[in-house]
Amino acid sequence: MKKGLIITLLLACCTLNATSSYAATKENGFFQKFKKNQVKQIRIEKQKEEQSIDDINNNLLTPNESPGILTDPNKTKRYYDSVRDTRKNSSKKELKKEELIEKAPLKLPARIHEDSVTTHINSVEMSTSEIFSKEEIKAFKSLVEGQEVTAEDLNNLVALINQQYREKNVLTARAYLVADSLADGVLKIELMEARIGKVYVEGNRFNRKWFLKRMVSKRDGKILDIKSLEDDLVQFNKNARSVQLSAKLKPGETYGTTDVVLKADEKFPYHFIASYDSFGRDTTGLMRGGLMLTTDSFLGFQDRLTGAINMARSSTTPFVDYNFPINRKGTRVGFTYMYGNNHVTSGQYRDFKLRANTHIFSGYITHPIKDTEKFSLNFNTSANIKLSTASVYDIKYSNYKDYNIAVGLGGRYNFKKSVLFASVYSTNGIIEDGMRDFSNFFTKMNADGYYIHYLPKGIIATVRVGGQYSPNNISYIEQYQIGGISSVRGYTESLLLAPKSYFASVELLFPIPFLPETVRNPFDREQRFRLRDAVKFATFFDHGAVYAYHVPTGSINFLASVGAGLRFAISKYITARFYVGMPLMNCSVYRQSSARLHFDLVVSPF
User: pTM for the whole thing?
Assistant: First the structure.
């Protein structure tokens, strides 16, 4: 029984975890001449914020996750971008919704000049409007119909209508008096509401024109609403990678139309990452090498393709992910495939020819519920299939088929001097045991959090927690693992696993006082590199525990460690971590050394 348990644990260690504005006026021939319309060109660009020199190198703040495919291959960059954004000072305050108030009835301003010349208005004719309702048009007409009016009154009426356009944030519409009107006391007012003529795209190389046009809600022939156009651009720029959109307006080919020119400011959309670390397992190879290539717009519509592979002595784990947007709000659909081929080639069980193969297929949807400078919340759901087989002496030992659906939330909250990342998700599914012709339903809940607090004198405190709860006796392919860089340092990777597990980690990062604050950049003599900001000394305390199904919990279920290390961030393209963890308990039980080195080097040149 004990031997079978050990074999099961070894097989589990071989298994992957799935995670994953045109305005126009015309000549007024009644009392005064309006100036001939001059076409105004308006450029809408998202304001770029200058980031002041920061005392904190945020590349140091990526969480202690094993880079590569075993978690989320883009997690390191996502965390860097998120933390960097939290340190920016926004020059624009977030707009709040105005309170609903009862508006006073419209009325013309009192006359400033007395005019003996008046005209009786029998009726008012106004052209069709897509901005004002029938009730609003009726209200405008009622101000002068059946009344004796002066030229000042009529000018005030036109000004009032234009003011209402502005209050509706429609800057590309104007009202004007039709020349030679007032025949038989009929006042004619033309409402010129600029329409979109054509939409052009300039500067695009990696993103297709049809896609960029689709990101703007206004189409040919529609009323031009600058506020709506600006909102579309801001929304796109928030979700897009390696491209930012701006827009300018120019006169259209047809009278009363405005053409929209979208300008794409693109960056190279391909990214390469190479990693080397000690996050492997003793039985299949402690040292690992990883390669990852990703593109932000594979077919030209912000569809992202990622391919990666991690390799150790007797472990190969390729990974591929493809996802694409389905609307302007940031909702994406994606598919992931992961494969793991592991063979135990070291340790006392190497002669048992222990092998494990795992296939993981996932289809998922992500949707941003809220995304502001201060707070973001995302919805995630996925359907997953996991196929896992293991053999001993080339004889199949286990054959699991796992079908499940996961639903969860993830988000970020910025405090004054800190930032919190958190996620929680629930998984429900069925696991079939092909060897025993048995299946059972399972449910589990996972949660994790990562908190960063900026202390005086360049000191940073981080807290990480994570865990899983399941009331069911689930197989090892759905159990939660602790031990190693991602949870409790000082122990081997994924040392313990169980249906119910948790870990907590506290880490302090200090600047090294004897290092020079800046040094000369060898590649640019006029620029100095902030050395003290790029290197931090770290101390930590980690703790974790597992709770087996219907098995009494004892001291052997707990792990704890302390340690220290160095974190380097030459830039966001070159980072390295070195930790020495010292286990505080159960070293002899699990045959752990008195200290263990964890290190990794991640290079992403582009």
Answer: 0.78
What is 146-172 written as a DSSP string? TSEE-HHHHHHHHHHHHHHHHHTT-TT
Residue range 376-401, pLDDT digits in tens:
999 999 999 999 999 999 899 899 99
Sketch the domain layout of the chain as residue ranges. Answer: 119-192, 194-266
The helix or strand, by DSSP H or E, that contains position 189, with its residue range, turns out to be strand 186-193
Burial class (CB within 10 angstroms; exposed 0-12, middle 13-18, buried 19+) of 434:
middle
- What pLDDT, in 10s, does the model give residues 416-469? 999 999 999 999 999 999 888 889 999 999 999 999 999 998 899 999 999 999
Long-range contacts of 49-53 (CB under 8 A, 24+ apart): 49/88, 49/89, 49/90, 49/91, 51/84, 51/87, 51/88, 52/89
Contact 270, 295 (CB under 8 A): yes
What does CATH list as the number for 119-192? Answer: 3.10.20.310
Q: What are phi and psi of 237, to 5 degrees?
A: -65, -25
Q: What is the DSSP letter of 606?
A: -
Residues in the chain: 606
The answer to whether domain 119-192 and domain 194-266 are alike in fold is: yes
Q: Which fold has domain 194-266?
A: Ubiquitin-like (UB roll) (3.10.20)
